[in-house]
């Protein structure tokens, strides 16, 4: 399975004066999606960091189609774009409970060796987990 879904409700604090989700909060929603995508395969960001690997975002693109509002039940669909190399690329779609598409996004992260602070190949345990 190369995709994963998570759902949650918009909190009041995530909305702006117009009553809609502040655009900056969508980056956090995407992070929630990719963290849970990895967790689905038995991989956690915490364990990767403990093994000397970090995954900083190097590219983020979002296209807003419709606004989310307080108490909306949102679903983030996270898909792996292609087999990871030194980068891992995700595509996202965020829907409301009426199944209306709110946001399309793409995020690229780089595998970085925490000791050298240099790019590295995707760890074998990640490749094995996602190909199983």
From TrEMBL:
InterPro entries reported in the protein's UniProt record: 4-hydroxybenzoyl-CoA_TE, HB-CoA_thioesterase_AS, HotDog_dom_sf, YbgC/YbaW
Does the record bear Hydrolase in its keywords? yes
Establish whether keyword Hydrolase is in the entry: yes
| GO molecular function annotations of the record | fatty acyl-CoA hydrolase activity
Kindly state which keywords UniProt assigns to this record, in alphabetical order: Hydrolase
Pfam families attached to this UniProt entry: 4HBT_2 (PF13279)
Q: Which Gene3D superfamilies match?
A: Hotdog Thioesterase (3.10.129.10)
* Family affiliation: Belongs to the 4-hydroxybenzoyl-CoA thioesterase family.
Query: What is the protein name for this chain?
Result: Acyl-CoA thioesterase
Species annotation: Aggregatimonas sangjinii
């Amino acid at each position: 399975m190369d995709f994963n879904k998570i759902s949650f409700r918009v909190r009041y604090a995530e909305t702006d004066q117009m009553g809609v989700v502040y655009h900056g909060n969508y980056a956090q929603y995407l992070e929630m999606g990719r963290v849970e995508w990895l967790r689905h395969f038995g991989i956690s960001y915490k364990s990767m960091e403990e093994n000397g690997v970090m995954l900083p975002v190097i590219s983020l693109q979002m296209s807003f189609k419709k606004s989310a509002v307080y108490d909306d039940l949102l679903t983030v669909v996270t898909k792996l774009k292609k087999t990871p190399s030194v980068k891992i690329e995700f595509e996202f779609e965020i829907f409301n409970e009426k199944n209306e598409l709110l946001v399309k996004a793409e995020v690229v992260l780089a595998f970085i060796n925490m000791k050298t602070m240099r790019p590295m190949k995707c760890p074998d345990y990640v490749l094995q987990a996602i190909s199983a």
